[in-house]
Amino acid sequence: MPGARDLTVELGGTTALSGVSVDLPRGQVTAVVGGDGAGKTTLLRALLGRVATSGGTVDVPPPERIGYEPSTSGVWPTLSVSENVEFVGSAYGLSGDRLRSRAATLLATAGIDDVPDRLGRDLSGGMRQKLGFCLAMLHSPDLLLLDEPSTGVDPVSRVELWRLVTAAARDGASVLMTTTYLDEAERAATVVALQEGRVLASGGPDDVVGTVPGTVSVGDDPPGGHRAWRRGRSFHSWTPDGEEPPGRPVVPDLEDTLIALTLARSEEPR
Ligand SMILES: Nc1ncnc2c1ncn2[C@@H]1O[C@H](COP(=O)(O)OP(=O)(O)OP(=O)(O)O)[C@@H](O)[C@H]1O
Fold first, then answer.
1. Is the complex ipTM higher than 0.90?
2. Tell me, what's the pLDDT at 260?
3. Residues near 191 by Cβ (< 8 Å), separated by ≥ 6?
4. From the CB of 45, is ligand 1 less than 6 Å away?
5. Is the C or the N end of the chain the one with fewer CB within 10 Å?
6. DSSP state, 65?
7. CA 46 to CA 8: how far, in whole Å?
8. Which ligand 1 atom is nearest residue 36's CA?
9. Same domain membership, residue 140 and residue 17
């Protein structure tokens, strides 16, 4: 199965990844989540072989069977939509009717088949990300790596992008996407949460939620201390085992879980 084992990457004196493992089964979406600097992009770059690893192994298809959408979308700003397709398609060795029919299907599914002459730089953020996705998919890759495809995209376009991502998996690709949106990650088959280059949690979303130690509780008022966070109009907080929760216990969602795990880890003896 494609994936990586015990990956360690050092970048300019920083340990960007430390002992990270990820399985990438065909037909499944794996979501990599984590805050700024957690190591998400480095993981993608290590899978692509674009960054030197100092430990661990990577097992992925050959480069021509991988599709990659960088966080900047990969769309060429001074080329039109059609020109982007032709340019990227030719880099994959696609041309003529084969390229045209593949591109037509992808662009229509993405809902961006009506602006063939618009320049990349004149597309809205959501349209640009959707075109970037189509470009990464042109050659029907076996492994699709998407770096924050939905960041800065409006909620409707995010739903459409998610539909494209799941369709790619349904067609048999292994899909790995990084995201800062936990509602998206909750719908993936597997979530890998990174923190400071290490795996904070990994598994099916429900399994990850089940790993919270202690209690997550909800209350209307901030309970004070650093163990509380705002959720809508309420405050959630995490309490270690053996301590009285300040509010009513709730079943945590993925967001609560990752905050609680981070708090629990920060209180572990070093
Ligand atoms: N070229 C580099 N030289 C030195 N350190 C780097 C380099 N690239 C990344 N890093 C560091 O490696 C760590 C992981 O960075 P990475 O870009 O993978 O995180 P990320 O989770 O993708 O974050 P973001 O969402 O902010 O891009 C960070 O501490 C970052 O500062």
1. yes
2. 93
3. 30, 31, 32, 33, 185, 201, 202, 203, 204, 205, 208, 254
4. no
5. C
6. G
7. 9
8. 26
9. yes
In terms of residue numbers, what domain contains 244?
212-267
Q: How far is the CA of 16 from the centre of ligand 1 (A)?
A: 6
Overall domain count for the chain = 2
Q: What counts of helices (H) and strands (E) characterise the chain? A: 8, 13
Atom of ligand 1 minimally distant from the CA of 14 = 5
Q: What does the pLDDT look like over 9-18, one tens digit per residue? A: 999 889 999 9
Q: How far apart, in whole angstroms, are the C-alpha atoms of residue 243 and residue 124? A: 50
Q: How far apart are CA 86 and CA 98, in angstroms?
A: 11
Ligand 1 pocket mutation, candidates 40, 146, 178, 179, criterion most atoms within 8 A of CB: 40
Q: Please, which residues have CB within 8 angstroms of residue 70's CB and are 6 or more apart in sequence?
A: 132, 147
Quick one: 233 and 200 in the same domain? no
pTM: 0.92
Distance 20 CA to ligand 1 centre (A): 15
